[in-house]
Amino acid sequence: MPLFLLLTACSGLSDASAEALESEPIVPAVELPTAPAQPDAVAVGVDWVNLDKNNGELDAQLATYAAQAHADGQIPVAYLGARWCGPCKAFKMQKGDPAIIQALDGVRILELDVDQFMPGLSAAGVKVVAIPHWFVLDAQGDPIDGGMSGDKWTDLSPASMAPSLATLKRTPETL
After folding, report:
1. Which is nearest to 124 in space by CA: 109, 142, 101?
2. Is residue 2 part of a domain?
């Protein structure tokens, strides 16, 4: 199923990604919040999988991890981000915050770096304009809707992020 994403939190991509999209990179200046004094979210409850292009095609990885998440009673959510994206950095820094952990309870995050997976995203029919962006996957690894982006946040605090992240707890049955 082709998925087209219009992401407005970071309104541009890195040089490699921008070239692939035939656009100029525009990365807004973002003041990042102070990192929480907590261990990484992986250790405190957020189920997080970092996808890597060296582990195979993106669609196959999404299908495998989505099926595993469904079998484990979790909701698989693909998270598109990049190391250079300010809001993406803020999200990852805050993922150990109790509000974020609660918002993502029952969700398995499948993280994709858009720079690493750009050809795979295009081949899968996903058009990335800006990041961060999340979309819920069915058991086959296909998006169930257009997802949501970080433009829902009023700032980069956990209190602002958590309510929109909690909306990811949906399944094809709840739409």
Report:
1. 142
2. no
Q: Among 166, 167, 127, 132, which residue's Cα sits nearest to residue 151?
A: 132
10 in a structural domain: no
Angle between helices 114-123 and 58-71 (to 10 degrees): 100
pLDDT (tens digit, 9 = 90+) per residue, 97-134? 999 999 999 999 999 999 999 877 876 656 677 799 99
Identify which of 75, 105, 62 has the alpha carbon closest to the alpha carbon of residue 173: 75
Whether residue 75 contacts residue 136, with contact meaning beta carbons closer than 8 Å, is answered with: yes
> Residue 173: what pLDDT?
64
Report residue 155 as tokens. Answer: 């700032």
Q: Is the preceding peptide bond at 28 cis, omega within 30 degrees of 0?
A: no
Amino acid (one-letter) located at 59 = D
Q: How many domains does the chain have?
A: 1
> Domain containing 133 — which CATH number?
3.40.30.10
Structural domain that includes position 134: 15-20+39-170
Percent of the chain residues topping a pLDDT of 70: 67
- Model-wide pTM > 0.85: no
